[in-house]
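DUF1552 domain-containing protein
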Amino acid sequence: MKALSSSPPARRSFLKAAGITIALPMMESVATPAGRSDGGEAMRMVCISPTLGVYPKAFFPKSTGANFELTPTLKPLENLRGDFTVCSNMDHPAIFSGHGGISTFLTGIRGGNVVSMDQLAAEYAGYQTRFPSMHVAVGGGMNASWTSSGIRVRELGDPRDMFDQLFVPDSAAAIKERELRIQEQGSILDLVREQAKRFARRTNPADRQKLEEYLTAIRDAETKLQGMKRWANVPKPKVNYQPEGHPHSGQDYEFLAPMMFDLILLAIQSDSSRVFTAGFGMHNRMIELDGVSTGYHSLSHHGNRPDILRQLGIIDNFYIQQMARFVQKLKDSPLGNRGDGTLLDKTMVYFGSGMGDAARHSNRDLPVILAGGGFRHQGHVDCKTPGGESTPLNNLYTTMLQKFGVEIESFNGATGTFSLS
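Tokens:
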């Protein structure tokens, strides 16, 4: 681990007027193209979360280093050694709220206008792609993604809806409605700008500076509006993929989960978005997997009962199977004429949760796997500090954001970075 000097996170300011919340732009210029870490092929970020975490004793390896022994839960990653790193003793030090930690998974702290790591990356990438970010979850919401104004980003609950958004052409009526909505938003911004200019005539120098920040925020909102306009009439990409069949229910994970990850892969290949969250929500319904006969939330409170742990192990292993399948598909996808290597080299795949041991409502020692992204992976890393404390997970998030291209020294109070070089 390579520590940076401790410093407060970059200040993000927000202004409200006429029912609109407008984020002030980052004050420092960005040197690299949006969504790119080095001016070359764009970097992507995929955050995968089982909201109730995984059973720790079957997840965390006992040995460290590149040749660590895979635990039962991690077995599906056997053929991907060298492409991922497992971290233990890493969590959000300020979070002690049981299930409440789910909503802090990608923020690491609580607060009003606390942006999540994925949304900071999405702000940076902007409308270089049709969707700054995409969000989908099987089995219920994840509550993982939060905008800079503190608004939760809702996930699509059915991957087939994601397919429609990505690849099904909009009707003429839908296009017309979107154009009217964009026009109305532009009119509101025009009104706010004119009101601000009139107000400027009767302000003192100090207030005038604040007002200039406000006008800068309006210009930023207008830039986002232009981004939406840019894609309004651009045809959606055509892909050789058609969803077939129907799930038995919202808990038919064997049908829904592979489709979810296949669509994310297609979205990456078509450069429809560069930031994704995907995962599995919290609920107490029975997940449709062979060998599972008890509600999911009840299984998470296993009480160390062998039959319950066996069922929970089936679910946890399924999660890692889906991650491994997705990572392998990225690894098998060459960049082609866009550069050397594979899509995995340009995609950070992060698996984690805001819950450590759900049976104890613990937010300590969170499950963490990072794959791909061009990092030099280290197998299993014990992140306990010399003082016996866990490493802040936001240190890893800082490193991931930097890899994505965001110029940031510390994300949400991180104490440094996490070295994978």
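The first helix runs from residue 56 to 59.
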